């Protein structure tokens, strides 16, 4: 009897705590919703947390442009904006590529499985690039001429199915965070930057609304520069709408980037977004504000390589891994880009690279995910990450005389080489030195784990 009573009482207590926990999360999410929609503001540290820990995302540039093998959007001739070096495809040819876009091999599930296998925590998919083609069946009307497709979207292609739906559903199924890339610049919309730009402004805001309404949770909105004057847009309304629809979303720093006359003050801070986006280069060490390097796995002499470029070179697995390591030790995230073929396949050598990265990360991921860059700022030699009282040195290129690091306030109590072999680590008031036999060094990254006497708090300043 007594036992039954205790059991019942125990259940009651547990139920009460579950109820309380439910109430507080509900409250927290309501708070966020109110805060960000009424007074649009960048994400809090807490809202950024998953992204900070994630470190690695997959960027996918795709569309009818892949049929031409020329750079997406930039390959179209006679554009209204500069940058002549990529132009290869006559505009009338480029603008009708969608009629042949039929990626029958496309398998969103396989792509997302691959992203997972690679160790990516999020994906960012092109919904509309500067060429104006929508990868989902948008309801917004672009052309009114009878010989042009009213919506210029995937619904006008032989394929017809909604690519954004497939990506969103598969990403959600595989537990990947979902990001939409959206280019505000639009080189085929007839009303883009015409008169006061009102028609185009309404068009693109309505498109953003579609993308944030119909696909469940969207975690990231990745804009790609704007053109014209601040007065030709209603960016504050845009942000209000974004936060109303997706209160936890993160927005990069390109929603208004490129516009003239952006007012200073709170609006300026708002449009600076949640993180910086150095492109085709690894960002410098920056521990305060968040940043993400976007880089193509295909290297092209003209600096492109975002979309499928048969004339490009696929970087080696070592290069890809070292780009990831250099980025994370600089306290940034890496958004690594692939440009799938028009059939819907990803180049086999790029698939191999992604799998190889995943294999490496399954052994050493702990030294990157969930860490922060520092306490030592990296250099040609490599860099460091830390978590609590543990520091990981990532040595990519050994200096002749061994590694010499400046002094740090924290005391090293033990060291261990994670990649095998042994190293001599010495700490004095002058700094830290690390030596290792050349035959024992890892060809990609020698990882040395240092256990410190206390939590790492002192970060070297650039
Ligand atoms: C640049 C390019 C664009 C690419 C983007 C990715 O803005 O214009 O083609 O999508 O970088 O960061």
Written account of the structure:
This protein is of the alpha/beta class and 462 residues long. The mean pLDDT is 93. It starts with a helix and ends in a 10-residue tail after the last strand. The chain is built from ten helices and 17 strands. Helix 4 crosses helix 5 (163-173), helix 4 crosses helix 10 (348-364) and helix 6 packs parallel to helix 7. Alpha-D-glucopyranose is lined by residues 61, 72-73, 224-225, 279, 294, 306.
Short description:
The protein has about 450 residues and is an alpha/beta fold. The chain has helices at about 1-40, 45-55, 90-95, 110-120, 165-175, 200-215, 235-245, 265-270, 315-330, 350-365, and strands at about 55-60, 120-130, 175-180, 220-225, 250, 290-295, 300, 315, 335-340, 370-375, 380-385, 390-395, 405, 410-415, 425-430, 430-435, 445-450.
Average residue-wise pLDDT: 93
Based on Cα principal axes, name the global outline: globular
Helix and strand string, N-terminal first? HHEHHEHEHEHEHEEEHEHEEEEEEEE
Measured between the Cα atoms of the first and last residue, the distance is 68 Å
β-strand percent reads: 15-25%
**What small molecules are bound in this structure?**
alpha-D-glucopyranose
Main pleated-sheet profile = 7 strands, parallel
Number of helices: 10
Helix amount: 25-40%
Radius of gyration: 25 Å
Task: Give unreliable regions as ranges.
Answer: none
Structural class: alpha/beta
Give me the count of strands.
17
Strands of the widest sheet, in order across it, are: 5-4-3-2-1-9-6
